[in-house]
């Protein structure tokens, strides 16, 4: 009987150590077991088997929890993969809004290197063009690092583009931008900086700086240490209005003193084309290559491929025609937009004759949409002098 107790205790110690290793919690049951030495053998054996059963239950519970966690992790990975695939598919479908089609991670990677999103606010009232101070400041003593955006009392402002009088901007020789601020499409540009001294607006030609225009009608500057003291970069008080311009406006000034917000003119792009095929077509022609191009304003039609590609988003109107030339045959021409057959020009002649057919179609297209004509069946007739197999279209209204 004592041997059975020893064997049971050995099995129990093994299971107990496994349970501790799996669960990470100390098990005080062993201590309780050894404290029963003065108990009878039957009582000790019963206690051992009871604890063994409890440990088996705990192991079963742990295995079930681990299995459930594994399933939850696999389901989570599957959902993330499906989301990623869905975003990729969406990106291919809308190529007219390039910035909006980027994934958030791609946008973040762009922004990380864009100074428009990483700059230091420089809000020092003494830099204003209308400020004179007793103690003169010198930007040569500043350790310039990275990009800066100018403010005046919490309002966006920019550097002056004209000569600033002496002893303004809190210094002896005010530094101004000797050149126009860039447009957004120009990206980062290098501009010369001049300092006014002794009636010479560019007596001090300081180290050039970099400038970039950002979305929102503001500029960021990569300042450098001026050539000497006392020189300091100016903030033009007259440009306070520029920080109030809307996204569809820009800041304008004729004298570089009085600034105003002016609305951008949206010029609608002119797109018109008219082409013909000077020959005969029989049976199925997947894409008619209209070789005779009479009008191609905007160059959106490709003579080599026979494809019209929408250059801008908007409302377009198309027409296409044919001249059927065989009795007893039906002739079908289809207008194909982004792979979909959307309109047909159909003729069916019962007796020897020729019949012309013209079809029109108006639709909304995104930038990059592909439009062409296919000859599905029958026979179409034309020659070099006739205009019976034609294709044309125009942009009716451009959309943002």
Number of strands: 22
Shape: flat
- Give the proportion of residues in helices: 10-25%
Spell the H/E element sequence: HHHHHEEEEEEEEEEEEEEEEEEEEEE
Radius of gyration: 40 Å
Task: Provide the low-confidence segments as ranges.
Answer: 3-27, 82-104
> For the report, how would you describe the main beta sheet?
5 strands, mixed
Strand arrangement, major sheet: 7-6-5-4-8
Number of domains: 3
The tally of helices reads 5
Determine the mean pLDDT.
Answer: 80
Structural class: alpha+beta
Termini gap:
92 Å
Beta content: 25-35%
Structure characterization notes:
The chain has about 400 residues and is α+β, with helices and mostly antiparallel strands. It has 3 domains: about 80 residues; about 140 residues, no CATH class; about 130 residues, Jelly Rolls, CATH 2.60.120.40. The strands form 6 sheets. It has a 5-stranded mixed β-sheet with strand order 7-6-5-4-8, with no helix packed on it. The longest helix is centred in the first third of the chain and has 53 residues. The N and C termini lie far apart (about 90 Å). About 25% of the residues are buried. Keywords: Disulfide bond, Secreted, Signal.
């Amino acid at each position: 009987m004592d041997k059975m107790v020893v064997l049971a205790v050995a099995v129990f110690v093994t299971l107990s150590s496994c349970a501790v290793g799996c669960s990470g919690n100390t098990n005080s049951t062993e201590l309780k077991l050894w404290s029963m030495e003065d108990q009878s053998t039957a009582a000790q054996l019963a206690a051992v088997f009871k604890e063994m059963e409890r440990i088996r239950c705990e192991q079963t519970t742990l295995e079930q929890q681990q299995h459930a966690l594994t399933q939850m992790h696999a389901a989570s990975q599957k959902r993330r993969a499906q989301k990623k695939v869905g975003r990729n598919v969406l990106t291919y479908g809308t190529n007219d809004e390039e910035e909006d089609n980027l994934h958030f991670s791609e946008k973040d990677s762009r922004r990380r290197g864009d100074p428009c999103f990483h700059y230091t606010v420089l809000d020092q009232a003494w830099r204003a063009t209308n400020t004179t101070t007793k103690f003169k400041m010198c930007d040569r003593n500043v350790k310039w690092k990275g990009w800066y955006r100018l403010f005046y009392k919490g309002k966006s402002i920019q550097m002056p583009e004209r000569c600033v009088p002496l002893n303004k901007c809190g210094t002896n020789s005010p530094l101004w931008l000797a050149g126009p601020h860039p447009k957004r499409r120009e990206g980062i540009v290098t501009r010369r900086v001049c300092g006014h001294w002794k009636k010479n607006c560019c007596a001090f030609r300081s180290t050039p700086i970099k400038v970039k225009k950002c979305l929102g009608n503001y500029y960021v500057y990569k300042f450098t240490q001026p050539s000497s003291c006392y020189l300091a970069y100016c903030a033009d008080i007259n440009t306070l209005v520029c920080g109030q311009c809307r996204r569809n406006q820009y800041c304008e000034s004729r004298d570089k003193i009085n600034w105003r917000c002016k609305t951008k003119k949206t010029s609608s792009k002119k797109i018109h084309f008219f082409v013909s095929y000077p020959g005969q077509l029989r049976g199925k022609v997947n894409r008619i290559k209209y070789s005779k191009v009479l009008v191609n304003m905007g160059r959106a039609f490709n003579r080599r491929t026979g494809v019209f590609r929408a250059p801008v988003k908007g409302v377009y109107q198309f027409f296409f025609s044919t001249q059927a030339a065989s009795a007893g045959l039906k002739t079908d021409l289809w207008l194909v937009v982004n792979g979909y057959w959307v309109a047909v020009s159909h003729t069916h002649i019962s007796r020897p004759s020729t019949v012309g057919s013209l079809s029109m179609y108006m639709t909304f297209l995104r930038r990059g949409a592909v439009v062409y004509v296919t000859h599905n069946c029958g026979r179409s007739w034309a020659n070099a002098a006739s205009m019976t197999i034609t294709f044309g279209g125009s942009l009716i209204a451009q959309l943002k």
